[in-house]
Design a protein that fits this description.
Elements (H helix, E strand, L loop, with lengths): L10 H12 L11 H8 L3 H13 L3 E4 L3 E4 L4 H25 L2 H16 L10 H19 L5 H21 L8 H13 L3 H31 L4 H9 L1
Antiparallel strand pairs: 1-2
Length: 242
């Protein structure tokens, strides 16, 4: 290791904090005091700080000058920009992967899709944390498998950061899932990928992400409007789903 190189954070601590972020354990704009995190995760100060720094570099939390760390804010403008960037990067990675992928890559896509179909579809992490985590991880693995053969570490790192941030928003906002057949969307993308129809696969991926974007931004706008009007958004959301 060269002088000045950063010591990688403890993988377990980083993974646990990241998993809790994706599960919505921390709300929008919430402070993340290092001392409290050290106690929660049983980590040393330097390990926790390095994990938080890495998460901030990936855009999953914010590092604030002289104030420490906090989760990202819930912003419609930021969400729209995030999803726009995700469409562009995901399409670029998918297109490159379809050109470079071999039979083993195809098999990994099929295997990841099969695991996704077997995972329980849980909308609310509070109701079934284990099931929610299983589906979330299977969903992330499927999208990662589609792009895994792109042979561009920088693009893949950007893709993963954008995907994870979108997952945080999805967990916070919990848009209604009954209006879409996500399983069919995933299957159609996979089928187009396996026959190497790049134009169709990328078009389907764009539609897939855009539908998620529209649902998330719509839910975010409704929630912010309710907040400004003094409405209990969580109660209204529960009543709507009853």
């Amino acid at each position: 290791m060269r002088a000045g190189d950063r010591i990688p954070p403890d993988g377990l601590t980083y993974d646990r904090i990241r998993r809790d972020l994706l599960a919505g354990v921390y709300g929008p704009g919430q402070r993340l005091p290092i001392a409290a995190l050290c106690e929660r995760y049983g980590a040393g100060l330097s390990v926790a700080r390095e994990a938080l720094t890495r998460l901030a570099e990936q855009g999953l939390i914010r590092a604030e000058r002289n104030r420490g760390f906090a989760t990202i804010a819930l912003s419609v403008d930021e969400l729209e920009d995030l999803m726009l960037a995700r469409v562009q990067i995901e399409e670029a990675c998918l297109r490159r992967s379809m050109v470079r992928g071999d039979t083993r890559w195809e098999a990994s896509v099929v295997a990841a899709h099969h695991a996704l179909t077997k995972a329980p579809r849980v909308e609310d992490p509070a109701g079934d944390p284990a099931g929610f985590a299983e589906w979330t991880e299977a969903h992330a693995a499927f999208h990662a498998a589609l792009c895994a053969a792109s042979a561009s570490p920088r693009l893949l790192e950007m893709r993963q950061s954008l995907f994870d941030t979108a997952e945080i928003y999805r967990t916070w906002l919990r848009p209604p899932g009954g209006l879409r057949d996500r399983a069919a969307e995933h299957r159609e993308i996979m089928d187009a990928v396996l026959v190497r129809d790049s134009a169709k696969a990328c078009a389907l991926m764009t539609v897939h992400i855009t539908r998620t974007s529209d649902q998330l931004t719509g839910t975010a706008r409704d929630g912010l409007a309710a907040y400004r009007a003094g409405v209990d958004w969580d109660k209204a959301d529960r009543d709507k789903g009853a």
